[in-house]
């Protein structure tokens, strides 16, 4: 019996080590992919052209990260938990965004998602017609991406850049103002 226990323990530890290594590599990859490669009118992009965040050494976040925080806390936190850490209703987006690409995120937010497997029905409503979400989907992605790679701690960012004119213009155009 102790031999089986020892073998089972070793197998478990091997699996745990392999899983931890894979998760660490995924985290490192997602953090490297989030690096700023370019800036356009106060908005930052990674090497693939996806929106990303920029946090200054003093903790100042770019406008879009701050806006994403505000939008998340007005429309998403009820299901996805404070700061995207998840709940019994919906997954932790800080985990999901470690591997989810920009296009998938946009599609799920716009079209919704339904998972009815394992006797546990989970439904993400579509927000493609909700301008309070749709007009700020990039901001939500940027905020959650910063949270997912660990560069943005929980809570309201203490300092933010000013709102760029491009953000004001887009908001007026999208919201119909």
Automatic annotation (TrEMBL):
Occurrences of domain Cytochrome c (ranges): 63-148
Gene3D superfamilies noted in UniProt: Cytochrome c-like domain
Keywords attached to this entry: Heme, Iron, Metal-binding, Signal
Keyword Signal appears in the UniProt entry: yes
GO MF assignments: electron transfer activity; heme binding; metal ion binding
Ranges annotated as biased composition (Basic and acidic residues): 158-171
Domain of life: Bacteria
Annotated signal sequence range: 1-24
Region of interest (Disordered), ranges: 153-177
UniProt-listed Pfam families: Cytochrome_CBB3 (PF13442)
InterPro entries the UniProt entry points to: C-typ_cyt_methanol_metab-rel, Cyt_c-like_dom, Cyt_c-like_dom_sf
Full protein name: Methanol metabolism-related c-type cytochrome
Organism name: Pseudaminobacter salicylatoxidans
Taxonomic classification: Bacteria, Pseudomonadati, Pseudomonadota, Alphaproteobacteria, Hyphomicrobiales
């Amino acid at each position: 019996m102790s031999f089986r226990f020892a073998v089972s323990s070793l197998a478990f530890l091997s699996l745990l080590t392999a899983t931890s290594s894979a998760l660490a590599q995924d985290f490192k990859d997602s953090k490297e992919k989030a690096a700023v490669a370019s800036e356009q009118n106060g908005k930052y992009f990674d090497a693939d052209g996806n929106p990303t965040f920029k946090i200054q050494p003093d903790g100042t976040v770019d406008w879009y990260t701050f806006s994403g925080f505000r939008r998340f806390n007005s429309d998403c936190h009820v299901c996805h938990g404070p700061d995207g850490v998840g709940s019994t209703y919906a997954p932790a987006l800080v985990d999901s965004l470690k591997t989810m690409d920009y296009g998938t995120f946009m599609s799920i937010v716009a079209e919704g998602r339904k998972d009815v497997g394992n006797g546990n029905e989970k439904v993400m409503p579509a927000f493609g017609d909700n301008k309070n979400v749709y007009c700020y989907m990039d901001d939500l992605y940027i905020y959650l991406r910063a949270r997912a790679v660990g560069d943005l701690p929980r809570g309201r960012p203490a300092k933010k850049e000013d709102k760029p004119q491009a953000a004001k213009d887009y908001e007026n155009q999208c919201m119909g103002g």
